[in-house]
Amino acid sequence: MIISAMEKAEILVEALPYIKDFYGKRVVIKYGGAAMTDCELKQKVMQDIVLMKYVGMHPIVVHGGGPEINSMLSRLGIKSEFINGLRVTDQDTMEIVEMVLGGKVNKEIVAGINASGGKAIGISGKDGNLIEAGPLDADSKMGFVGEVLRINPQIIETVIENGYIPVIAPIGMGSEQESYNINADLVAAAIAVAMKADKLVLLTDVPGLLMDPKDSDTLVSVLRLSELDDYIKRGIIAGGMLPKVKCCEEAVTGGVGRTHIIDGREPHSILLEIFTDEGIGTMVVNE
Amino acid sequence: MIISAMEKAEILVEALPYIKDFYGKRVVIKYGGAAMTDCELKQKVMQDIVLMKYVGMHPIVVHGGGPEINSMLSRLGIKSEFINGLRVTDQDTMEIVEMVLGGKVNKEIVAGINASGGKAIGISGKDGNLIEAGPLDADSKMGFVGEVLRINPQIIETVIENGYIPVIAPIGMGSEQESYNINADLVAAAIAVAMKADKLVLLTDVPGLLMDPKDSDTLVSVLRLSELDDYIKRGIIAGGMLPKVKCCEEAVTGGVGRTHIIDGREPHSILLEIFTDEGIGTMVVNE
Amino acid sequence: MIISAMEKAEILVEALPYIKDFYGKRVVIKYGGAAMTDCELKQKVMQDIVLMKYVGMHPIVVHGGGPEINSMLSRLGIKSEFINGLRVTDQDTMEIVEMVLGGKVNKEIVAGINASGGKAIGISGKDGNLIEAGPLDADSKMGFVGEVLRINPQIIETVIENGYIPVIAPIGMGSEQESYNINADLVAAAIAVAMKADKLVLLTDVPGLLMDPKDSDTLVSVLRLSELDDYIKRGIIAGGMLPKVKCCEEAVTGGVGRTHIIDGREPHSILLEIFTDEGIGTMVVNE
Amino acid sequence: MIISAMEKAEILVEALPYIKDFYGKRVVIKYGGAAMTDCELKQKVMQDIVLMKYVGMHPIVVHGGGPEINSMLSRLGIKSEFINGLRVTDQDTMEIVEMVLGGKVNKEIVAGINASGGKAIGISGKDGNLIEAGPLDADSKMGFVGEVLRINPQIIETVIENGYIPVIAPIGMGSEQESYNINADLVAAAIAVAMKADKLVLLTDVPGLLMDPKDSDTLVSVLRLSELDDYIKRGIIAGGMLPKVKCCEEAVTGGVGRTHIIDGREPHSILLEIFTDEGIGTMVVNE
Amino acid sequence: MIISAMEKAEILVEALPYIKDFYGKRVVIKYGGAAMTDCELKQKVMQDIVLMKYVGMHPIVVHGGGPEINSMLSRLGIKSEFINGLRVTDQDTMEIVEMVLGGKVNKEIVAGINASGGKAIGISGKDGNLIEAGPLDADSKMGFVGEVLRINPQIIETVIENGYIPVIAPIGMGSEQESYNINADLVAAAIAVAMKADKLVLLTDVPGLLMDPKDSDTLVSVLRLSELDDYIKRGIIAGGMLPKVKCCEEAVTGGVGRTHIIDGREPHSILLEIFTDEGIGTMVVNE
Amino acid sequence: MIISAMEKAEILVEALPYIKDFYGKRVVIKYGGAAMTDCELKQKVMQDIVLMKYVGMHPIVVHGGGPEINSMLSRLGIKSEFINGLRVTDQDTMEIVEMVLGGKVNKEIVAGINASGGKAIGISGKDGNLIEAGPLDADSKMGFVGEVLRINPQIIETVIENGYIPVIAPIGMGSEQESYNINADLVAAAIAVAMKADKLVLLTDVPGLLMDPKDSDTLVSVLRLSELDDYIKRGIIAGGMLPKVKCCEEAVTGGVGRTHIIDGREPHSILLEIFTDEGIGTMVVNE
Prior knowledge:
The structure is a homohexamer of 287-residue chains. Chain A has 287 residues and is of the alpha/beta class. Chain A has a domain at 18-70 and 103-121 and 154-168 and 179-285: Acetylglutamate kinase-like (Carbamate kinase, 3-Layer(aba) Sandwich), CATH 3.40.1160. The first copy, chain A, is built from eleven helices and 14 strands. The first copy, chain A, has helices at residues 5-14, 16-22, 34-37, 39-54, 66-75, 91-115, 154-161, 184-194, 228-233, 241-253, 269-275, and strands spanning 26-31, 58-63, 82-83, 86-87, 120-124, 131-135, 146-151, 165-169, 171-173, 179-181, 199-204, 222-224, 258-263, 282-285. In chain A, the strands form four sheets. Chain A has an eight-stranded mixed β-sheet with strand order 5-8-2-1-11-13-14-12, sandwiched between helices. In chain A, strands 3-4 form a two-stranded antiparallel ribbon. In chain A, strands 6-7 form a two-stranded antiparallel ribbon. Chains in contact: A-B, A-F, B-C, C-D, D-E, E-F. The A-F interface holds A 72, 75-76, 95, 98-104, 106-107, 110-112, 114-115, 119-124, 126-129, 155, 158-159, 162, 164, 171, 173, 177, 179 and F 72, 75-76, 95, 98-104, 106-107, 110-112, 114-115, 119-124, 126-129, 155, 158-159, 162, 164, 171, 173, 177, 179.
């Protein structure tokens, strides 16, 4: 399909009301899943983020890194024990996790954003003491799987006020300088709260919350916190969706305007969420 | 033709390199002709200007007002003498010209920009002593037809630094506080020079400079100053095109990066000029 | 009478305590009546305003424009219907009102202030969305006679912080970009409230509130709000004085320090009000 | 003579062009002589200085202190030797000079300015290393009579930018922290040069330079540097006038706009100099 | 004893936690006693103060001046009457007190700090209206012995924000511009409260509060306000220690973090207080 | 040896002149060798750096990471080819190099500085496009061994102005977003030049340049650029010392004040260099 220059101009202009509404707003994006492994999708996400910055928003990126961590661990012959589906993270594993997340995945995203015309800076939770963390479980059976104890957002403020896009690896620092591997969704939610973000967007590999997980026509567009318990009881929110929704709950009760679980497999899904009235995916709201 | 949300997102993203290039740049737009009288075109120009501001440019609008002046003069039964096609502007006429330009046309543009989501402020050459003027002809046969003696751009700096879009009526002020009616193209060029603008765009009712005025396929895309004399001698630059080109010459020799004579009858012509590689109309460059 | 240089110096020095008291204060001046039509008085008002700015105050001028509007309407043969003494303002009339106020009267005042050494900038209620307005009467019988719905004072803040004197034409903008003609006293009061002004001064063609309108020796120097109803019942506040006093009431209940109804026919009446202990005219206070 | 309020207002307004011309300008005032000993004159000088600050100038005061020093020395029974009319300043004398100048005279002026509504701060040449000094004569026969080696004006910049009026005692500091007594005229000239002042005003006890010292009608209003040698040769500039004129020469050759020797015995002489076209006293200019 | 370069480096590094804790903090130092009369101690105090500034604290110095005042009074043959051990300060005495404190002692400290590499500025209570004062006793039998009525700390804010160290002479100004001699401890406490200081340090000639004044091993390290009355009743806090402790009480109840009575006879006592865990002297706390 | 509190205070004060001289200065530190592998030395370097920041300098850290890279490569069974002693860096190796440098070594230093009381932020050459790089050798036989093409120092400016200590991994980014492994000494020199640093300090595992490499008493304290060729010819500068000296040459000819090759095996060697008159190691100067 050929779109004329003038039609393109029209489309730019159609974006104006959204640009206006989001001017100066902070949007935390949890970046992961297919949007991070598929080369073409990846590039589109970078473009979306840079565009957001240029039209006046403050995107803040938090990324995961599962597949690359697994691949490196297996190259090194490090075997992991799993408890309740969560990898037990011993000292050796943690070292690799941190290197892969902070030294490889993080910097690739930074380079990608810069190549798309933005100015990104990669940050781990150690930089500027951004993420103070502790072990997730009291008896530390999980090793260095951590939880956020406290966010010190000053470094992000400095970075965004000076025109940079922060890209954050979900590594926390304990009181003895030990590193913790924290779930990226949780980090994104905690940072959204600490930064008083207007929006938290979780990029996933599903279309959103589905009444029937096999039927994408059963998408729940808006999920109210008041309905949460009922959805859980009925088993509609279950499996991998449960922690995602919990993150959203944490964010909106912490003051974040709106939170979205969207389909990162769809090209430019972030822009679609922001620049169309209908949005995409499932929006979780504090009602 | 139906364009999908995703195609729209793609188009937004295509604009990124242009947005980046023009970030923080100053663009003076001479607004007049059909783009000012046709309701639909008018609205599109407003949208283009607001979009420019939101993506980081500093548009500065200078407007004419011919038809509305004529209409008011005829309603008042004021007859004008013409010398060489220029209206002799006596005291009575000048009063009407100033009222129509500064009180009606200017404020309509301001209201239009504001309605499109921008923050505009209307300025005449008297505000903040912006335009110091004197009579165009030594013997003042033309009455209050003026020329720019000096631009005091401080007020425009204040206005654009604070997020506003200045909309300027081409009224100059003489040393005795008398008003002068100045050609809007000339004012636009002088302000572009004084503001060290990166671009001057003249909206006209022709596609640009044509080798054969009857054949729009003969558009001259780039006009070098070095070719100017030859084009004039050969009669290609003539009639109403001559003063337009002269304005562009004044601007580029005064340090303005690029100047463009474009077709205001084309919807979103300003965006087309800025957001496409080919641009539209005729670009006059200092070569 | 010849006043020696040294006596002049003494007089400058006498002004010191007043200069000190008003340093940094905002003073809204409703400018109209004889002070606007008499050439000599006009110039003195300009000088007063510029002096105020130079000694550290922030004067904000709101002007009317009755006589010039009438004159232009009659030149154009536009007849107006009147209801309760207020001109019904149809579309045609409104167009003329706006042109005369914003394009002529406003710019003359701007030019006058600049010629007196100040830096003024003319603003209508459309600029920067300063005055959001709607019809004064519910059934719109009065046409485009408007009332202030909301003041967006940001543009005035920008202007005064940058050393300019704002000169405001009392045109409001409706939600459909339509213009409204609003009583200048009301605009002055609303702006005084929105700007948290320390003083509102209404220039009129009477000495102030008189117990006996025919005897200027019966001036009421201070009018307390608590006395208002009584004065109205007794018919002392009546006719044109009633809306003036109502404006003052609105201002002082809205937080404006002091409001004054003074005689604009007296040369330098503004300075007299500010730089003498007794002041002149009638001060309305919230007691 | 009774001057009406309106005449007073006229006089304020007459000052406008001068206020405008001197807005933001720096004026160094050497304060001494009768204007410092006569109680009434003293108060008028304070008022003049405060007024200057309020109308936007930056007055900088440098004071002497002869009579009070003499009185204290005599109370203490300290006898001074004189060489060429200059007091030899031994350690004991210097101690007294510094105490009287910095602890008494300086603070009295500060208190006087504050009482007149200004905000003054007293500074000696030691504060912020303002005046680096050394002995005036190579063989130090004069003791701690000093000359200015270098002015560090940063502290004055800080002070005036924050709204204060600096009052400077002419004490210099040597490389061993020893104090020097420096002629206040010289200090005033050096500070005027260092501060890039627009004006230096020396308050004296004579009407200015007189062709015939006994006839005040022979005042030289303007003295050009080019005429200096001739005036000195002819003995017109002689005695106490010679060092004053030399100071002015140093200042104007150092870039100070204008320098004035005026009669401090005349009430409000500073204002008369600044706010009248003729000025008073003798102006020394670089021509 | 020879300390190697590396040991010195270790010592610098040991100071880090203290430097960090006090970064940006305000510390008011009452400077007097032996630390002011002994040449070597004096220099060490200057160095301590400059070091504090360089490592990020904001030291504010308030000084006394007893011995120098006495010496000057006796040189002038002025005899003082004493009531309850306080010198009755008549006009003549006050003049000398002010000169010695503001003109001599103050400037010597300023010069000393500057010579040690700092940037000091001397201030008396008159400068910038810093200390508004009145007579200490209702019937003014004590003459110009004053008490602080009000501190206007703006000038100190200006001075410390611009990198200077303020050195304050304890002279207050009455409503008639008359000077008052105020106890320096009281001034220090009042300024500490007005500046929201984190610490007030009183340099004295004793080791602190001693249970047995003859035995320096009986030092009370921490004195709680709750214990005060008891200590006074038991006669442990008595004599010159009583007003010192009262000053500390005033400061800590006014919001000053910690107050210290330390031994100025010990070299670098201020640094010892700040840079060691134990501190020295007696700390008075609000418990 | 026991050093008393007072002796410690003396030592702090001795540092004052150095603190003063380096206030606000930028010092680039190449951190590597034993100082990075030895736990105790490591901690001392962190402390030195934090102390520098607190006393007003701007330390900028560039680190290497040889041993940890080797260890990870060997764990992964990646074998490297060497050409002229330089590791050929293929894609696989580069991936590991980047992860180890940016994700492990860099973050450990950051955490160490933060634990010592500073605020550090880790940056690779990709962040904010800091280091634009290309292959070191024209024919790319060395693979991704790179050289600095251009430093974009803006991100470091942002970081240091906001109170952070930048810690830089020597990874460069090519035009295709590919990563390059660059010698840390070269990066340090290039950044020192781009940041207009006052000092470049290279931490090595030798005492400096020795006339006889086996005799540490033959240290060359000052090496002039003019002597360089001669030293090289004579074989005194050879082996690993040659590139170090070349880095210093590049820095001082690029405008860096002073460059130092010091012994990182000596505890607190950085402080010793800065806070003692003799300094340590070899200083290379542009003479």
